[in-house]
Design a protein that fits this description.
Blueprint lengths: L8 E4 L12 H9 L4 E8 L5 E3 L11 H4 L17 H5 L32 H15 L4 E6 L2 H6 L4 H16 L6 E3 L2 H9 L6 E5 L17 H7 L5 E4 L5 E2 L2 E2 L2 H7 L3 E2 L16 H12 L3 E4 L2 H15 L1
Parallel strand pairs: 1-2, 1-11, 2-4, 5-6, 6-7, 7-10
Antiparallel strand pairs: 2-3, 8-9
Helix pairs in contact: 1-4, 10-11
Amino acid sequence: MAGTPGRPLVIAHRGASGYLPEHTQPAKALAYGQGADVLEQDIVATRDGRLLVLHDLWLERVTDVARRYPGRRRADGHWYARDFTLAELRGLAVTERLAADGATPAFAGRFPPWQGEFRLHALEDELALLRGLNATTGRQVGVYPEIKSPGWHRDAGVDLGVLLAEALEAELAARGPLPLWLQCFDPAELRRLHAEGFRLPMTQLIGRDPAAQGDWAGEDPLSATGLAALSRHCSAIGPWLGHVWRDGQDTGLVARAHEVGLAVHPWTLRCDRLPEGCGDFEVLVAQLCGDIGVDGLFTDHPDRVVAARDRCWARLD
């Protein structure tokens, strides 16, 4: 239940993306094996209206699309997933994320670029993998899909929010309960889906600069009144870590959110990119899980957060 003290969830950010290329089936399976409680999916739409697991709207920083389809780049220099069918996208080779130059790794020291064989997949593929793993292990690991850039998708001719919400409702109706949160950065999108009758648990993501995200209906989402407004249609918030922990200190956001029944799942903990002012990853996890009392943590390194969380929780017990 939102705001109820308990062992925080470990949310695998794009899978075990600190170890294997993001949003690939091997990265999700590894995260599951490392003890993650939830697997995260970013969702974009393909040309044939399928739900693709991909972080960006475009493809060139994680696939070989430039080599395979040189003539299908748009005028802005990007190859968009929306311009390809799911079958075409499944044929692309996937690599560790590249920097903006398209050549060097975005994270030095992670899985070597262009090594191994990795592919893109649809949401339905990941749900099948997760259901299978839950069946064989007896665990109930959940999913955390994000509606990526809903306004951009509407302009491109697809209502991604409704498409995804309907797919998730159909999944639950056909195959039974599954821990699930639907997340989005666009505040108007989640309000709209709630107003249209969707009752999936929703998480409002809050970026570094909330004012740049869109229409907050006149409220600061980090304030008590803003959080109360979000609690009318959301069960959780997913704030940038700096809104929760700053220079080693609790900002008070978690307590304010808990007062109105919202769980708090900050993003993103990375062993290889610690926030400014943090010198020890395990100390940070212990402070977030213990003193500050977050309800979940997005991380690229699920094994490290599981271990640190459990050591913290053992001391609290």
